[in-house]
Design goal:
Elements (H helix, E strand, L loop, with lengths): L21 H6 L16 H12 L1
């Protein structure tokens, strides 16, 4: 039987990561611009997919 067909108890929010503490948020890196995410040497298809993901 496939995994999808087996009965499982709902996990609710248990699968989500915990909230960050104030200290963790202060230490997190902050991007000054979306340009910081740009990756050099992408093929056109990869670049289109990357920019489409940024727009979502």
């Amino acid at each position: 039987m496939s995994d999808a067909a087996q009965h499982r108890e709902p996990t609710g929010l248990a699968g989500l990561p915990r909230d960050l503490t104030d200290e963790e948020l202060e230490q997190a890196p902050v991007l000054e611009s979306v340009d910081d995410l740009l990756i050099e040497d992408l093929m056109d298809e990869e670049a289109y997919a990357f920019f489409a993901a940024l727009d979502s």
